[in-house]
Each structure stands twice: as structure tokens, then as C-alpha cells.
Amino acid sequence: MNFTTFLQQCLTGISLGGAYALIAIGYTLVYGILRLINFAHGDIFMMAGYFMIFAMAVMPWYIAVPIVLIATTVLGVLIEKTAYRPLRDAPRMSVMISAIGVSYLLQNLATYLFTALPKGYPSIPVLKKVIVFKNLSTSLVTLITPVLTIILVYLLIALVNKSKTGMAMRAVSRDYETARLMGIKIDRIVSFTFAMGSLLAGIGSILYFTDRMTLYPFSGSLPGLKCFVAAVIGGIGSIPGAVVGGFILGIGETALAAAGYSTFSDAFTFVLLIIMLLVKPTGIFGEKAVDKV
Amino acid sequence: MKTKNKNSDKNKYRICSAAVFILCILLLIFLEANKYKYSYITGILVRSAIYALVAVSMNLVTGFTGLFSLGQAGFMAIGAYTVGILTIPVAQRPAVYYMNGISPVIEKMYMPFWAAIIAGGIFAAFCAALIGIPVLRLKSDYLAIATLGFSEIIRAFIASPQLNKITNGSYGLKNIPSFPNLYTIFGICAVCIALIVLLINSSYGRVFKAIREDETAAQAMGINLFKYKELSFVISSFFTGIGGGLLAMFMGSIDSKTFQIALTYDILLIVVLGGIGSVTGSILGAFLITSGREWLRFFDEPLTLAGINIPLFRAGFRMVIFSILLMAVVLFYRKGIMGTNEFSWEAVFNLFKKRNSAGAGSGRSDIQDNHSDDGVKRILNDREA
């Protein structure tokens, strides 16, 4: 493998990692607050892809993108309100099963509405522009993804650390009951968290699928799981952790595929997860949790 | 007097159980005799029975030991591939492995189906034992995601080109012989489920339940947490492997795509619908969901009512309805059909009694009250006598 190919693969890996990071943040935010693996998150990401296909069919990309992002956010909040809120006081396993149910429903709904055949993802001309640098050629989206990811994460961290809503989010994630006693409107904070997560998943979806071109109803489930793994590796509940985890997975997976073991690239994610859980279950940036009796 | 009444009740329940049992046997004999005529229904029933077995073994881990494990599809894959590799007739093997050739190690290895099924179970249990050592230290959702991950790893290994000569890679296995008759398959499922029930009712089962209720308390009582968790996980995987083997025989051809995460979710939904922690619930759930999926099939066909084509009805609508139903169960009927209770005739009769007294208007309920008064009087008379 020569140097150019190496650089090319690096770029692909970083770009994939950026998209993973954006989705992983959604998992980490929700888990931080509700202690719930939102299995439907990967499917929200998939639905965002379908929204984009239909939006792009009738309008130019600069109108389509905001509409898609709004629709995705609304979908995320709607799911939280209908499927998770009634189970707020139920055991954790019930909520998780409800999440699996929502994921199942979204996949079946997508199969019904859009058929199981892969659909072509529309290309946004600006993102698809090919940039040639010496003998290295790449599309703009590959370069934009990591940069955009870093900017968004910076904004999100600022939001969480500086704003009042962010403070409420941190309070809820630290202690649910006490936060409620302090007059924080839990439901509103949870909805806001889901909105943030879904918005980032929507952006991630646009970046991810622009590179991949096709979309089918199950194309959200595996990336979704992988991004959850990324969040766990980085330390669930931590935003920088999710980003680092996303990049580790994206680069590692691309490296494996480049080395010719592409069948194992999915398994690689889970091997990494299991190693991480055994060595440092709290993840790279995670805080230590003490189990109370 | 009261005991006498109870005894007569017990006899009544026994007669009911025997009647249902005999009905099942008769149905089986009937289906076996008309196998080809009713092949559709038979297929649904066989699949339900296999899913019931896998669901009950998942319940052993999830419902009775409190370990949320999502590795079912992986262990089923191990069982299915073991059975497939060991039972495809030697003469047909070159045709199955025409793409990549067959490894000389397994070329002449042949076993009768029952031995192969047990081998599949043992191999799945062995893998579970290895996986359990690191994974069972984790709790709740971490455990779920780790077992889910292992099931994906198993699937990736099976599909990998490096194992082409053994698992036939992405081409899958074909020509797996089916069961000699229906009694075998239903018999195997029934025996396995009975074994699991025996285990649950034994002292081991009580330890499992203690771990489910409170791990810390169980540990304080001197229970070796890891030993019992591992035991439950391994036994459950053994039966899941057997279930996978049966599924392979039923389907005749398998590939790694059969054992995706969706399969685990299917089993999980059966367990949830039936009631987490109820064996009979899982069995009921398996039959209801598997056959429900077929009954709802009319949703997939275009429907014309009074000359108007109703646009909603087309391919895929069935699964949407199905998942909405399941969501409704999860949200509004959280305990599932059975909750943590087991099926008993007493509950069924009580249900009917309640229905009758509640469903009818006030007039009828008066009559019923009279009846029950009569009953009380009769009982009193009996006591005097």
C-alpha cells in the first residue's frame, strides 16, 4: 500500500468516524439522563435518510436540509413522548424492550412505506464536489464531516456547560429525583435531550449517506449499534467520550476493511466493546459509578 | 368439607389437562396422517414449537435469573450450523460445497439427526461457557449489548471467507434433511421444555430466582453468583442451540443471514408478550405470535371493498400492524399475557366465572348470586351430614 492510498483510507476513516461520533452523542445524551439504550436511535437515523430522499425530490438542498433536520427532531421527540414517557417509572428492562419495539416498528414502517429495496440517496452537489490535491482525490463531504463534527460538539459542550438548560440536563443526569425536587421540569429536559440527539443523528445521517449512496429500511440498525458501542467505549454519558469512541471505531473499521478483513469489520466493533468492558467498564472518559444496595 | 371441594376441583383440572393433552396428540396424529394436505398449518405449528423452546430457554436466563441476554440468534446459529454440517448426506456434500470445496475434516463426518442436535446444543453450551466468563460480570444493559455483540461476532465468523470450507461462507448450507415425522419434532420440544421446567422448580431454580430478585442479598446468603449465573446461561444456550438445530432441520437450508439480530428480537417479543418469568406464557406467546403473523397476512394483499381499492393494504402492512400491536402490549399491558404466573385451570375457570357475572346485566347476576347461595347451602348441608 503506497502513501496515497494510506492517506485516502485515513480520510475515509476519519470521515466515517465523524458521522459515527454525531450519532454516538445521541446515545450518550439519552443514556446519561434516562439510563436507557435508545435502540430506536439507529432507526431515527435511517428515517432521516428517507426524509432526505423525499425532500430532495421536490426542493433544492438548502431548503431540504433544514426541513429534514426539523422532521427528524420532531420524530425523536414524538417517540420519546409516546413510547418512553409512559414507562418513566417502570423497570429499566421494560423501557429497553419498548425501545426495541420502537426500532422494530420504525423498520417495519419504513419497509411498508418505502419498500425493502435499496433506494438511491440523493447527492447534494456541494458536498459531492471532488477536490484534487496532488494525486489525492476526495469529495468535499469527507473533509467537511470531521470539521463539522468538531464544531457541533464544541457548541453542544458549550450548551451543556454554560446554559441553564444544560445545567438542568446535568442535574437530571446526576440525580433524577433530586433534580425534580429542585423544580426542574424533567419531562421538558428529557424532550430537549431527545431533540438534541435526533438533530445530531439527522446531520450524521446526511453526512453518512452522502458517502454511501444507498439506503434501505435496515441500514440504520447496525450503524446504530456500532455508535452505541462507540459511546460505551468513550464512557457513556460523556460527550467528548462519544466523539473519541466514534473516531476510534470509524478509523479502526476502515483500517480493517483496507487490510482485507471487511467481513470482520462489524465483529471488530463488538470485540473492542468486550475488551473495553472488561478492562475499564466505565469507558475512556466515564465517571466511576458506585452501586448502592 | 372444603378440602373435599378442592379435591373435586383438582380432579376437574386434571381431567381438563388430560383432555387437552389427548386433543393435542389427536391433532398431531391427524396432521401426521394428512401431512401434505395441511403442510401450511403444520409448518406454522412446527415453527411455533421451535420458537417456544427458544423462548422458554431465553426466559430461563432473562425471566428467572434476571440476566438480560440478547445472544439467542448467535447460539441458534451455532446449533443450526452444527446440525447442518453433521447431517447433510455425505453423497450430497460436494453439491452443497461446490463453490469452495469441503474441508477434509468434516467431509466424512456424519451423525444421525438426534445425535447432531445434541452435539449442536453441547457446542452452543460450550461457546456460552467461554463467553460467559467475561460477559457475566456485566450487568443489565451492558450485559444485553455485550451478548448482542457476541451474537454478531458469531455470525461474522460463520460468514467469513476463512471458514468457507466448513460453513460454506455466505452461500449457506442446503439439503439439510428434515424430521422423520412430526412426533419427533414436537416430542423433542416438549421434552426440552419439560427439562427446563424441572430445572426451574428444583433448588437450582430457586437460586436463580433469588439472584433475579436481589443480587446483593443472594450473595449475602452465600450464593456463588458467578457459578449460578454461568450455569443458567450455559443451560439456556444449550437449549437455544437445540432450538437452532431444529430450525435448521425445519428450514432445510440456512445461511448466516437467518440468524440476524432480528431473530433475537422476535424471540424477545415472544417472551415479553407471554410474560417475562412465565414458561407457559412463553409457549403461548410463541404460538400466538408465529401464527398471528400468518393470520395477519391478509393485510398484505390488496383489498377491494365495494369496488373501492383501499390503498393501505399492500405488502408490509401486516408487519406494521403487528409491531403496533406489540408496542401496545409493551406500553399498556406491560406484564404480558401471563405476567409471572403459570397457566392453571383454576385461573381459567375463575376468569370465566368473573366474565359471566360481570358481563351479564344486574338481573342475571342476581340469579347467579342465588346459585352461589345454593352452593353455599349445599356445602353447609354436606357438612352437617
From TrEMBL, chain B:
Source species: Johnsonella ignava ATCC 51276
Spans through the membrane: 12-31, 38-61, 73-91, 112-136, 142-160, 181-200, 231-251, 263-290, 310-333
The keyword Transmembrane is assigned to this record: yes
Presence of keyword Transcription: no
GO MF: branched-chain amino acid transmembrane transporter activity
Region annotated Disordered, chain positions: 359-385
Listed name of the protein: Branched-chain amino acid ABC transporter
Biased composition (Basic and acidic residues): 366-385
